[in-house]
Amino acid sequence: MAxxxxxxxxxxxxxxxxxxxxxxxxxxxxxxxxIGNLCSIFVMDExxxxxxxxxxxxxxxxxxxxxxxxxxxxxxxxLYISIDTVRSNAKDYQVxxxxxxxxxxVHGVLHLCxxxxxxxxxxxxxxxxxxxxxxxxxxxxxxx
Length: 144
Fold this sequence. Notes:
The protein has 5 helices and 4 strands. By secondary structure, the protein is of the alpha/beta class. Strands 1-2-4-3 form a 4-stranded mixed sheet, with helices on both faces. Helix 1 (about 15-30) links the parallel strand 1 and strand 2 (about 35-45). It is globular. The model has no long low-confidence stretch (mean pLDDT about 95).
C-alpha cells in the first residue's frame, strides 16, 4: 500500500511528499478507513480537459478529477490534479498556491472516503471536512 506522486506533461515537483503522505494517511484513518494505493498525478489544463471529456463527458476545465478504486474499508484511486487550475484558483481566491493544492488533494481523498458534494448541504459538509483536515497540516509549507 502506497501513496505516490507523479507529474505528467507539467514541470512540477511536489515539496514535502513524506509529510503530505503521512497527513493523507491520517485523514483516511480519521475517516475510519485504511490507505490502499493512492496516486496523485499532476497535469496541465489541457490534460485535465481531455480526461474530463473522455471519461466524464464534460467539456470544461477543473482542478481535480478523482478515479475511485476503493473497497468498503480501503481507500484507493487516482487523483488527476491540474496545476494550472490550482494556480489560477489560488490567485482568484487570494490564497497560497500550496494551501490550495492541499485543499484539492484532501478534497479528492474525501471523495474516495465516500464524501459527496452534489447538493448545497453536501458541499457545506465537504468544505467543513476540508477545513478541518487543512488545519491539521498548517505550516507544512511555511515560508512559501
